């Protein structure tokens, strides 16, 4: 298999990256303009969120035509030009394949609605229960029931996400062939990677049953079903698997290490790597996302460590990420953007980039963009955010508290326009953007960062180190002193070379005693760190949010 282990992927959210035609929405020509900026950062591949034709109810994750470009983003010619230009800079594209569901405006669903039996079997359509209730008691991940009336019939269609996103019936071989054909269509356009949306929920049983009402039990009824592995292998063998240079990543909702290994162990012919999300739930209050509690550092360390060790033991491969378009900004979440913006952003970056796996950088992360903390619910656009706000008020949470939760957890936190400079709309667009710009854009923007900042260069260095040091791209992983209250430390090892990585997750000095670790500090060099003059011996005191990587001979 192609060795992708020294690659770094940049996630680009087209709607919010750069608006070249000044209609308030980012577009492909805007991306073309900024490719030299990304080449300067040193990334290898760009994962693009969906830019296919879509009613945009869920920002493009509701696709109405998989083989076209939505006019808000440009044309197919623009797309082809973008692929060609990026190639000149050694950058490839990874596209988002949303195969669990289509928009209800997709031709298949429309034909199904008009009575075409062939297309009715493309979706998961069931009779109501004999007492008239919905086919099961399942809940949509965006709130409310997961079933909606199918046109004027007595039947219901399943939507695990928004009511406008109808789940596809993967048990139908014709559906599988259609989706294989879509991957092959984009491969022919020179696309070199695929990110598969919520891939582990595509395998639903023929007979669907009620859950106990417990959300984990409910998810288990349709998540990581053994048949999912068969579907992925089929997709692999009939499309991307025929070209060993293709990189794939599956978004796996609530998965486990056992399945993570099955999805990514090369002998299985499934995927290159997966996204798992457990480490981004450590600031949920008893599992509840819409809450505001400090993150649980013990739990975070345990999860990172378990996934590193577990996947490594089974020859699996992790996608490494703190941020994406569904998550709040990690520096606002786990760092201190007021007192230690540089230190905490670089500590988080380094913790992740030196782990075993493939790092993803989400646009704006490389300049330290933060959550926008909008004071008005109307400034948020996201469908999930508005559903959650409504549900919180229905549960008698007062408006101020509900808004506090939204400020912490809304998906719009990461979707605000990219901050390019200190001019109006942060240089993203000449007109009012589709989502407000964060009001700190005069202090945090690309221009200023490139002139006087230190975060971008730190990322640049981390990316370069992965290419220069096999201990980073290929080395083994071992977590050490996991009971330290402030510091997450680990050792990577490759052919006798050791890389010790120490990360202080708090805004105060913290000590670690390494005297029992059998490490030789007589012959070391500091590979990278976010403070100068760190004093290295077997007892090390780290400064606030300090991170340091020490190479031991
Ligand atoms: C996961 C995507 O990342 C998210 O943005 C989307 O809303 C859901 N899948 C549904 O497609």
From TrEMBL:
Residues 11-415 form the Glycosyl hydrolase family 13 catalytic domain. Keywords: Glycosidase, Hydrolase. The keyword Transcription regulation does not apply. GO terms for molecular function: alpha,alpha-phosphotrehalase activity. It comes from the Bacteria. Its EC number is 3.2.1.93. InterPro entries: GH, GH13_cat_dom, Glyco_hydro_b, O16G_dom_2, SusG-like_C, Trehalose_TreC. This is Alpha,alpha-phosphotrehalase.
């Amino acid at each position: 298999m192609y060795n992708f282990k020294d690659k770094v992927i940049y996630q680009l959210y087209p709607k919010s990256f750069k608006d070249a035609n000044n209609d308030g929405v980012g577009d492909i020509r805007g991306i073309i303009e900024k490719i030299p900026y990304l080449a300067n950062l040193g990334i290898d591949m760009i994962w693009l969120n969906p830019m296919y034709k879509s009613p945009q109810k869920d920002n493009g994750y509701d696709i109405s035509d998989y083989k076209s470009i939505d006019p808000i983003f440009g044309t197919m010619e623009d797309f082809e030009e973008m692929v060609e230009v990026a190639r000149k800079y050694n950058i490839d594209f990874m596209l988002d394949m949303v195969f669990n569901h289509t928009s209800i405006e997709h031709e298949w669903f429309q034909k199904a609605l008009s009575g075409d039996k062939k297309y009715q079997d493309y979706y998961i359509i069931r009779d109501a229960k004999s007492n008239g209730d919905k086919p099961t008691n399942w809940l949509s991940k965006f709130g409310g029931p997961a079933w909606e009336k199918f046109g004027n019939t007595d039947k219901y269609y399943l939507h695990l996400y928004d009511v406008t996103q109808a789940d596809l019936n993967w048990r139908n071989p014709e559906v599988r062939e259609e989706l294989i054909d879509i991957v092959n269509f984009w491969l022919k356009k020179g696309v070199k990677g695929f990110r598969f949306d919520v891939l582990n929920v595509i395998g639903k049983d023929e007979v669907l049953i009620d859950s106990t009402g417990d959300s984990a039990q409910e998810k288990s009824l349709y998540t990581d079903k053994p048949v999912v592995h068969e579907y992925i292998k089929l997709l692999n063998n009939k499309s991307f698997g025929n070209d060993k240079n293709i990189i794939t990543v599956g978004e796996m909702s609530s998965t486990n290490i056992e399945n993570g290994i099955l999805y990514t162990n090369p002998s299985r012919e499934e995927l290159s790597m997966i996204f798992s999300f457990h480490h981004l739930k450590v600031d949920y209050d008893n599992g509840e996302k819409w809450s505001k509690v400090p993150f649980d550092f013990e739990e975070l360390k345990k999860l990172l460590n378990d996934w590193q060790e577990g996947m490594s033991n089974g020859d699996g491969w992790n996608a490494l990420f703190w941020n994406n378009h569904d998550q709040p900004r990690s520096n606002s979440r786990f760092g201190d953007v007021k007192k230690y913006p540089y230190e905490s952003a670089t500590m988080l970056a380094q913790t992740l980039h030196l782990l075993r796996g493939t790092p993803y950088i989400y646009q704006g992360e490389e300049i330290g963009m933060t959550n926008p903390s909008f004071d008005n619910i109307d400034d948020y656009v996201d469908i999930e955010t508005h559903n959650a706000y409504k549900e919180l008020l229905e549960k008698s949470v007062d408006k101020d508290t509900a808004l506090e939760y939204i400020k912490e957890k809304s998906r719009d936190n990461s979707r605000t326009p990219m901050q390019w400079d200190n001019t109006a709309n942060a240089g993203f667009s000449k007109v009012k953007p589709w989502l407000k710009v964060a009001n700190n854009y005069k202090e945090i923007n690309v221009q200023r960062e490139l002139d006087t900042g230190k975060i971008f260069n730190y990322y640049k260095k981390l990316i370069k180190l992965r290419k220069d040091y096999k201990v980073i791209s290929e080395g083994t992983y071992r977590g050490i002193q996991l009971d330290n209250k402030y510091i997450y430390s680990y050792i990577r090892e490759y052919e006798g070379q050791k890389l010790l990585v120490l990360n202080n997750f708090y805004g105060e000095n913290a000590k670690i005693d390494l005297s029992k670790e059998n490490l030789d500090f007589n012959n070391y060099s500091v590979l990278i760190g976010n403070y100068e003059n760190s004093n290295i011996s077997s007892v090390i005191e780290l400064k606030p949010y300090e991170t340091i990587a020490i190479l031991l001979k």
